[in-house]
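Pair request: fold both.
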Amino acid sequence: MKSPLLTLPGAVPAEGVDEGVAAHYGDLFREQRALADGTGCVDLSHRGVVTVTGEDRLSWLHLLLTQHVSELPAGQATEALILSPHGHVEHALYLVDDGTTVWIHVEPGTQDALVGYLESMRFFYRVEVADRTADIAVVHLPAGSITPAPDGVVVRETSYGRDLFLPRADLESFVRSAGPAAGVLAYEALRVEDHRPRLGFETDHRTIPHEVGWIGTAVHLNKGCYRGQETVARVHNLGRPPRRLVFLHLDGSEVHLPPHGAPVRLAEDGPEGRRLGFVTTSARHHELGPIALALVKRNVPAEAELLAETTAAAQELVVQP
């Protein structure tokens, strides 16, 4: 679904999973600074939107999700995961309940699979699941923004900003009034700085929540049974996830940013050394310079200097070894 905001002056389309919205509007660092200062907004209208209504919506979702949501207060934002039977991350949900409806946004293109799974688990519960992507768009306002949400718009408020579930017909007029618009590259740079994992970037087919720091934020360790809980409990009790997320300060003299999937090795072993992990997301930050997140083997020394592809990188702990 192509955003109408791609017609704004300077808009450069994003590629890959973020296709359909702007990567930037001509000045990446200016856009980052605006978001860091609490001004502007980000068009995330390519993300999937799913709603769950009905009397049993919270108690039913509580049985399926990694998060404790059975008594979720209206207006309180949370995150949750859906795991495979073996505990691998399949879906990441960003949700809020408005008192009658649970509003969820998810990674672009994953809403069909999510709705299919939820529909398969309805059974006798009084719930209705709907894909609202065609008529609802997500817009992000950064922390500190004083831009008011339009009347009647559901807001998901977090420590890093507010996500608005906006009628798609109002998207262009709202962003033009709430500007300056910032692209997803600016949003991603601040996400990397905050060490926040993203499904499909910091995860692969075998990722478990402990590896990327989702324990606590998206996984509640004291709740009833859900699919994949045995793996979560076992790894939590043993304290030995096979991999861990790290934040990388990249050599600023390099022109090239290592792409997603680029190998990570010990610097002392050189670019031909043994692969110990991979870059998940890299970005250019307006203050920190080139930065990245990477997933490495648990036993990589925490003080070791690394190579991200051929770029020297100093690691900062996100998940403890």
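--- second member of the pair ---
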Amino acid sequence: MDDIVKKYNASIFFDQRMYNEDIDGSIAHVTMLGKQGIVSNEEKDRIIAGLEEIRKEIAEGKILFTVEDEDIHMGIESRLIDKIGDVGKKLHTSRSRNDQCQVDIRLYLRKEIYEILNSLCYLESVILEKAEKYEDKITVGFTHLQHAQPITIGFVFMAYFQMFKRDIERLTDTLERLNYNPLGACALAGTTMPIDRHLTSELLSFTAPTENAMDTVSDRDYSLEFLCDASISMMHLSRWAEEFAWWNSSEFSYIAIDDSFCTGSSIMPQKKNPDMAELIRGKVGRVYGDLMQLLTVMKGTPLAYNKDFQEDKESLFDAIDTWKATIDIFAKMLDKTEFRMDQIEKQLGKGFLNATDIAEHFAKQGIPFREAHAIVGHMVKACEKKGCDLEDLTDEELQAIDKRVTKELLGDISIKSCVNARVSFGGTAPSEVHRQIEVGRQWLNSLER
């Protein structure tokens, strides 16, 4: 190869992070070859010993890969042959780099998924703690970024709990589909050698061997599915980061983010910028890009293997690193963020937050809801004209709107009363939020077991 082609062709500088998985796959493969009599037990033992030495040397930084290695598979195999001689050449019997690459990625991604699931579970535990702390603390609920209805802060936390719960469920489903053994598919059509793919599946803790060799070497669905999972979860994190950014603004001042997750300005000494929230909001774009990159690679690739598939790793690795770091940072930032109830309470009297509750109260008194809705709309207009709250309208003013309405009919329309009354399943009442927290905790504990 021309030198420029060698550099363009090489993947060693990014796929070397899978050296442990490559060695694990090779050990399982040669163990199977030994059991099947394809290599002798002595040859098997020498190969395994050589691989373990190489693993140790890589971990200790004694092996530095170069462009001449091309990829992690050849990098390890060439050093094995140098170390133990021609017997090392037998390792590649009944194996292609096509299925070898697949087993490395599946093992690596499986390991990373377990770590990401742990991180998501930790985030969920922080959310539950915060939800419990603020389960009866009232804040403003928005639609269209306008004051809508009063809700509890615990209710907000449990809304995000459900988002990340779905993220965990999606990722768990991906893990289930990922966990099939590609070893033995070889280049695309299997092998004439008497291999045992069920044994390598057992040795590597896969559910079973993949069913079709041609599909196996050309399949990247599991990576795409993971990238979809990452993109959706990053979107959830970005949505909350967006709320953090405006909750933290001077106009809102709803929260106090710990200084350790903020930065100052290079020129304005008074600034405390929510940089981590903004970075999280920004980094979702690169994960979306990782997904689109691999989708684009895969869209025009005929069966079976194509060199295009080498481009499946960098985007995957980037999404893994970005998603993991984002979850961990957000969880810690969330843990160290407190709500400023004194500032939030100043906003509860704005926007007629109890309007819907009044309409529902009228409906309970026998007034059809559409009529009740219109009545309250006229009450809001009267308040805007007078510059008062709904509670301040007099009997005369109410009667002028509708003869059926009196202050007595209004009843208790305080913000706290409105929140406490929303006890429908999934609602914002503190009692219902408490139930959601307990159900969430039971679910999370069942995962940890």
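Observation on the second member. The two ends are 53 Å apart (CA to CA).
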